[in-house]
């Protein structure tokens, strides 16, 4: 339990920072995975990335 207003503000800031980092990481991983999946798409076989 927060004792005073400053401690409450600090706890809220930490929580927002953690949530923001979690969301950014999730979006970055989603973007990376979509890029990797596109490499294995049939339309990209002609680029000779995959032999």
TrEMBL record:
Protein name in the entry: Uncharacterized protein
């Amino acid at each position: 339990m927060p004792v005073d207003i400053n401690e409450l503000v600090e706890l809220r800031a930490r929580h927002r920072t953690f949530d923001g980092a979690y969301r950014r990481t999730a979006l970055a991983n989603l973007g990376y995975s979509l890029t990797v999946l596109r490499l294995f798409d049939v339309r990209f076989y002609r680029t000779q990335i995959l032999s």
